[in-house]
Amino acid sequence: MKQKIKYSELKLEQLVKPDNTLYDVNSVDEAYSFVCNIAKQHYENFVVGSVLVPRKIRKYFFSIYAFARIADDIADELVLSAGGDVANLLLDTYQKLLENIFDKSNNIRLKNPVFIAIKDTVEKNNLSILPLVRLLSAFRQDINFKRLETFSDLFEYCHNSANPVGELILSLFKEATPKAIHYSNCVCTALQLINFWQDLSVDLRRGRCYIPFELIGTDEIGDNYLDYFRSMDTKNFCSIMKECYEYTNNYLEEGKKILKEVHSFKLRLEVGFIIYTARRVFNKIKKMEADILNVRPVR
């Protein structure tokens, strides 16, 4: 398979199989070309597309990104078009294939480009698959969304949905020290929180509320989260968001210390740019006050 495929035309259900007739590849190089194409097309392509990532490990970023992107779209997009049962089944199959390809007792005919690339990435860089499994658990939580009662629930979600990406990046750069992982987790949690506040109007409309219910103080919110918050007194809403923003800011400030912890100059530049960009978006969000319920701020 040498032709480039538009990401919007990918059939996600085909990419949870070990082999298929649509996207079979016959070499590791073809598999990396496939995941590179996904990473470069998608609108959320962050560090994976940066020229600051050394060329020798850039393809590994592509494979991790493509793996996560597809799983995320199963949870976010497929659940809307096909329903939660279908999305759950595909995500379960996706995780089972991930686990099976590293089980030497399984003789799998693997021609799926995403999994050929991720298998090579894990083996060549001596990575653990646990961060990838944690990502899938967060996506599964999105499909079967239950309200987050406390900030502890919120941060546990971030531990699975965001922090694994930073841990994997540090491992690829051979920078995964305990301190670096701690600061990376703070940055990634802050980025996830900022994304929640940026997408607040979108998520609330979808029935997902990432504001901990301990801040809301009532069970009478009903099913229409967006209408509930829009009907709330502006001062009360801003007070709730202020506490959310304080946690976000604390994580971002703590995470900045990673810039003095990692040795790679290119990684410091990349992370520094990510933090700078996140801070700009975060400042826009805070200035919007209750308008955040109506408009999604952009960079």
CATH architecture of the largest domain: Orthogonal Bundle
Strand content: under 5%
Coarse morphology: globular
Q: What's the multimeric state?
A: single chain
Query: Care to count the β-strands?
Result: 0
**Element pattern in H and E:** HHHHHHHHHHHHH
Rg on CA atoms, Å: 20 Å
Under CATH at level 1, the class of the largest domain stands as Mainly Alpha
The percent of residues in helical segments reads 55-70%
**CA(first)-CA(last) distance:** 36 Å
Strand count, sense and barrel status of the largest sheet are: none
User: Low-confidence stretches at least 5 residues in length (pLDDT < 50)?
Assistant: 45-49
Structural class: mainly alpha
Total DSSP helices: 13
For the residues shown, what is the average pLDDT?
89
The CATH topology of the largest domain turns out to be Farnesyl Diphosphate Synthase
CATH homologous superfamily of the largest domain, by name? Answer: Farnesyl Diphosphate Synthase
User: What is the number of independent domains?
Assistant: 2
